[in-house]
Structure formats: C-alpha cells, structure tokens
Amino acid sequence: MMMEASFDTEESFDDPSCLAPQPPGAVSPAKRQIKEVKETKTTINCVTFPLPGEGPEQQLLKPNEWSYCDYFWTDRKDPQGTTSVAGFEVLLQKQLKGKQMQKEMAEFVHERIKIEEEYAKNLSKLSLSTLAAQEEGTLGEAWTQLKKSLHDEAEVHLKFSNKLHSEVEKPLLTFRGDNFKKDLKKYDHHIADLRKQLASRYASVEKARKALADRQKDLEVKTQQLEIKLSNKTEEDIKKARRKSTQAGDDLMRCVDLYNQTQSKWFEEMVTTSMELEKLEVDRIEWIQQHLRQYTTLRHETDMFNQSTVEPVDQLLQTVDPGKDRELWVKENKTGEVRPVDMDI
Amino acid sequence: MMMEASFDTEESFDDPSCLAPQPPGAVSPAKRQIKEVKETKTTINCVTFPLPGEGPEQQLLKPNEWSYCDYFWTDRKDPQGTTSVAGFEVLLQKQLKGKQMQKEMAEFVHERIKIEEEYAKNLSKLSLSTLAAQEEGTLGEAWTQLKKSLHDEAEVHLKFSNKLHSEVEKPLLTFRGDNFKKDLKKYDHHIADLRKQLASRYASVEKARKALADRQKDLEVKTQQLEIKLSNKTEEDIKKARRKSTQAGDDLMRCVDLYNQTQSKWFEEMVTTSMELEKLEVDRIEWIQQHLRQYTTLRHETDMFNQSTVEPVDQLLQTVDPGKDRELWVKENKTGEVRPVDMDI
C-alpha cells in the first residue's frame, strides 16, 4: 500500500501537463524516503516531514522556476503565533490581491476617461464662442479656423476617451468575472478537506499506536506470570494475548497506510493546483501588460491627431495679407473717390 | 493765392513721407482744375467737387493700392438720410473695431488658458491616486511609471498655459494701450475742426457773393437813371457805386481764396492722416498674425512634449516579466520548500 501511494505521487510527477519531466535517472523523492529514511521524521499539523539534516536531500520539483509547487509546503504561523495559515492560503491571497489590483487599474482608467471628457467638453464649448467673430478678411478666416481647431482637438480627446473605455477599461474590468472567486473557493475547500481527512487519519494512527503498545505490555506481563508457575489456564491467556497483539499491529499498519494515502493525495493536489494558480498569475500579468500597452498606443495616437488639428490654422495664417484685407474692406466701405477741387469765383 | 493754395497741395503730394511719387509727367489734379474746369462744380456739405463727367479724369493718388487716402472723400448719408457721416469717421470706426477684435482674441486665449489649467490640475491629482499602488514586481514598476506620466502630462499642459499667457494673451492685450483711443480722438477733432472752418469760410463766400450782386444791381440802376436826366449829383452817385462794386468783387475774391486755402489744408490732412490709419491697420494685422502663429507653435510643442511623457512607460512595459515577478514574490512569501514524506510505523 505505501509503495503504491508513493507510486501514485510519482506518476502525477511524470504527467507533463502537470510537471516538467524529472532529470533522467532521478529517483522519486517519495521512493527514497521509504527505502532509506527511518525514525528521522516529524509531524507538524498532521503533515509528516523529514527532520532537518536527516534523510536524503530533496531536489526541487521544478528547479530554477520559482514554481509555486516548490515553496508552500509548510503552514505559516501568524505573527501572534496562535493560529497558522496553510501555505496554499498564501497562494490564494496572492490571487485575490491580483484581482483587486486589476479592478483598481480599471478604476484609474475610468477616472482618466472622465478627465478627457471634461477637457473635450470645455474645448468644444470654447470653439463655439463668438469672440472676435467679426474679424474680417484673411485674418478673419485664420481666426475662424483657429477656433474650429479647438473643436477638432475636442474630437480627438473624445475619441481617446471612447477607445480608453472600450479597449482598456472594459477589458481590465471584465477579465475574470465573479466565477474566478468561486473557482478559488473550490480549490480552497478541496485542499482544506484533504487536510481535515489527513488530520482524522493521523488521529487514528495515534490511537492504533497506543492500542498496540497496551497489547504488547499485556502479553509481556502474562509471559512473566508463566515463568513463575505453570498452569494450562495461563498457556491459554498467552496465546490469546499474542493474537490480540498481532491484531493491534495489523490495525496500526492499516492506519499508517491510510494516512500515507491521504497525504499523497493532498501532495498531488497541492502540486497540480498551485501550478494552476501559477498559470493564472502569468495570464493576469500578460493581460494587464497588453492593455497598458494599448493605453500608451492610444496616447501616442492622440498626440499625432492633435498635431493635425493645428495644420489648417498654420496654412491660413501663412496666407494672411494686410493689403488683401484692405482691398476687401475698402471695396465694401468706401464713401467716394472723387477728390475735392478749388472753388471758382 | 489760389495758385499758391493748389501749389501747397501739390507740394504735399510730392512729399514722399506722405505719398508715393506720382507717375512722371503727371500734372497735379489741383492745377488742372484751375486751368481747365469752369462752372462745372458742385459743393456738398461745404466741400467742392467736380460735377460727374465734367472736367478731366482724376488719377488715384496711389493706384492699385486700395489706399484709404483714395476712397473716403465723400460724406456718407446714414440709412435714415437725416445726418451724414464723414468718410474719415468710417476709417476711425474700422480702427476701433480692430482694437475690439484684438481684445476679444486675448479673451479667447485667456479662456483656453483656464481650460488647460483645469486639465492639468485634474491629471496631476489623478497621478497621485493610490489605485493599484500595491501591484508588485516589474508590472508594479510599469504601473507606477504610468501614473507618474500623468503628472508629466500635467506639467506639459501647465507649461503650455503659462506660455500662452506670456507669449500670446499678454501681447494681444497690451498692444496699443488706452493712448491709442486718445490718439484717434485727436485725429478726429483735428479733421472735424478743419471741416468746421471750411463751413464758416464757405458761409463768408456766399455772403460776399450776395453783397457783390447787390452792388452790381445798384450800379446798374444808377446808370439807367443817368440816361434819363443829367445831373452832377447822379454822376457822383455812379462813381461811388462803381467803387463799392469793385470793393465787393475784391471781398468775394479774398473769401474764395480763404475757402480754397482751408479746403487744401483739410485735403492734405485727410491724405496724411488716412495713410497713418492705413499703416496702423497693417501693423495690427501683422501683430495678430505673429502671435496667432506663436499659439500654433506652442500647440505643436505641447504635442511633442506629450509624446515624450509616454516613452518611459513604454520602456517599462516592455520589461514586464511574469517569471521575474513570480521569483520576487515567491522569495518574499514562501512558507517552506521541504516536501512531506510517508510516515513509518
């Protein structure tokens, strides 16, 4: 049974979907434990670890990858040292924080959108002002275009804010809906249940161990009694006690077996699940990176389009001509070009 | 006297500070009038003009220039036809309107400045927000830079608004202080006074013309009386009447002389002053053109500087690395890397 349990674990390691293949010739950690390690272990919160310095050195499951599956086996005592948090909980907290960060980034972008809308509103309002609307001629045309250019600028910033909404804010907001937190809860309960089962099976092991000890003591006593005075009655008792002691030994073996099966199951689930969380975090970072890049792309676009709003103004300013404007105005406003002459007597 | 008066006018034409030199061989309009034009003139509002179609054709003082000095000789009847506005007043109105336009453009720029300040205020406020401040690793750095870039953008827009104030709004506002309107009033009064003087001298001419007519009638009567019955007494009367008639003729000649002098003086002042106003308008248009160009230059600058605020964000976004971020986080948060092992009996 024990061997099988460790093989199970081994198999799950060799499953590439879940773990990188181990270096060739490497022996499953679990196997080694069984073969070599004896009485050099400790159990903390019902999980059994090799004692420091004892037993063979463990290789990381995924060396040089800082994989979640290699660093969260121990429970962490909280500052007060009263309760302790499972390593897996630390991974779940990281996921929840990541979700929160993504939500806050969307909020930030939303604020930026509001600022752009306000700016655009003010610009287009001003572009409609009638100030200096009566300026005439080529100068008047340049001025009119300058006022119009504010409307164009407003359009550019409005377009920016619309794209910010659809191409940055919304994706950041909708990436991983509420299902995400539900999924995390599932993981959480699944791993927590295995820990509870492990605890109860550890309790049975302790109970069985004590029962065996009692039986062995009883057998010892009866054997001593036999040496003192021979009687058939005692012979019977000893046979009976030896049977019970053997039975208690079998019980303990069975309990330890069940305990190790559960611990192997928990081990497998810890490895696969923590690696799923690891994948989720990579996705989150790449998703955010991609959409922050979209933000800077839109900013660049905005600056480019803004440039183009000024060009027609520049062109008309170049054609401003005081002589032409005088001609236009004089043609419209002249009172008379016949000059006075001297009076005769 | 008349010739002198017309010469005065002629000289003032040849004064280059006041007029472009006339085409070679051209004869002063004034001269021609004296030599050729007879009984072909009309006087409107005390100003004497040649009758349409009568007399030699007048050349423009500044051909092809649409110069103010060529097109505002007549007074303009207002729509109701009750009062009439001097051509010079039309030129003054144009100046006042130009001043108003320049003032309104400054106002417009001021409004733009306020919009930029508001935008900058909102951007830098948002850049200080703590949203997603706990994002970690390389992604956290990129995010922090993105938030900082809003502060840089705010700085760019603040710089824009400051330069708009000092390099566009202020020059437009301070160009031609209140002295300008005082100067216009001086011109106005100067020309108006000459018109008043012209009116009073025209009145004296009319009076003298009537006096001469009376005297001539009187002489005629007395001469007829002489033909009927001779008497020394009448001889005396006729001599006396002839003297008075001659005197009245001299009076009229003097009055016409003075009238023409005044009209020549007004003519000169009209030419020189209207050309000063023409120059002022050219200056105004070029001044405004120059400062609206400054506006577009500043707008271009702003777009350029804005571009540069995004670049550091782009760079940090390129270095975002989920693997690196996992390493950093795991190093700080790992609970334990020793894996559980099977329990022994």
Automatic annotation (TrEMBL), chains A, B:
<dbReference type="Pfam" id="PF16623">
    <property type="entry name" value="WW_FCH_linker"/>
</dbReference>
<dbReference type="GO" id="GO:0048268">
    <property type="term" value="P:clathrin coat assembly"/>
</dbReference>
<dbReference type="Pfam" id="PF00611">
    <property type="entry name" value="FCH"/>
</dbReference>
<dbReference type="GO" id="GO:0048812">
    <property type="term" value="P:neuron projection morphogenesis"/>
</dbReference>
<feature type="domain" description="F-BAR">
    <location>
        <begin position="64"/>
        <end position="325"/>
    </location>
</feature>
<dbReference type="InterPro" id="IPR037957">
    <property type="entry name" value="GAS7_F-BAR"/>
</dbReference>
<feature type="coiled-coil region">
    <location>
        <begin position="209"/>
        <end position="236"/>
    </location>
</feature>
<dbReference type="GO" id="GO:0005886">
    <property type="term" value="C:plasma membrane"/>
</dbReference>
<dbReference type="GO" id="GO:0005905">
    <property type="term" value="C:clathrin-coated pit"/>
</dbReference>
<protein>
    <submittedName>
        <fullName>Growth arrest-specific protein 7-like isoform X2</fullName>
    </submittedName>
</protein>
<dbReference type="GO" id="GO:0072583">
    <property type="term" value="P:clathrin-dependent endocytosis"/>
</dbReference>
<dbReference type="GO" id="GO:0030136">
    <property type="term" value="C:clathrin-coated vesicle"/>
</dbReference>
<dbReference type="InterPro" id="IPR031160">
    <property type="entry name" value="F_BAR_dom"/>
</dbReference>
<dbReference type="InterPro" id="IPR001060">
    <property type="entry name" value="FCH_dom"/>
</dbReference>
<feature type="region of interest" description="Disordered">
    <location>
        <begin position="1"/>
        <end position="29"/>
    </location>
</feature>
<keyword id="KW-0175">Coiled coil</keyword>
